[in-house]
Amino acid sequence: MKTSSQQLLKTLSGLAHLNINRDEFNLKNELLSLFEKQHLANHGQKNIQLNLRYLVESEIIYASHFYLLGALQNLLDNAVKYSGDTPQITVICYQKRGTFVIEIRDNGPGIPKKQQKYIFNKYYQANKDSTSKKGYGLGLNYVYNVIKAHKGKITVDSLPGKGCTFTIYLRKWKKK
């Protein structure tokens, strides 16, 4: 799974403007499926705790099934990758003033404030000093571009030693 994710990221990283096609799908079920894939991919390697708090009445979202789930998978992969042997990851979905919000919280080492403004830049790696965590610096740039193509926004809130919370805001998530 990691190899296919990396190949996908390498291929899509060169696309400055993603043309997304939206469709309706059950986001809650898809998130649970992503959780299952994380457990299978890390079977026996890490003791992963994945929690979903889906606080929106409708489980149906109008977005790009392929790209949005790819972005969410990337954020989950990062959370597992950087959260040590016992990753504790919580995904919270809720609605705020008509905007669909997805928070992904982890218990990893966090990202220093000085680095946070660069993490969505192509090829930037906040963890480049870590020899055990290899990457290309493309994942968060891909996530940023997917959310931007959805006319949304992504933010990060993090303190070193306190984990990260990535928050996605999607204004146009319902079919009109």
From TrEMBL:
InterPro entries: HATPase_C_sf (IPR036890), HATPase_dom (IPR003594), His_kinase_dom (IPR005467), Sig_transdc_His_kin-like_C (IPR004358). It comes from the Bacteria. SUPFAM superfamilies: ATPase domain of HSP90 chaperone/DNA topoisomerase II/histidine kinase. It catalyses: ATP + protein L-histidine = ADP + protein N-phospho-L-histidine. The keyword Iron does not apply. Residues 1-174 form the Histidine kinase domain. Its EC number is 2.7.13.3. Keywords: Phosphoprotein. This is histidine kinase. The lineage of its organism: Bacteria, Pseudomonadati, Bacteroidota, Bacteroidia, Bacteroidales.
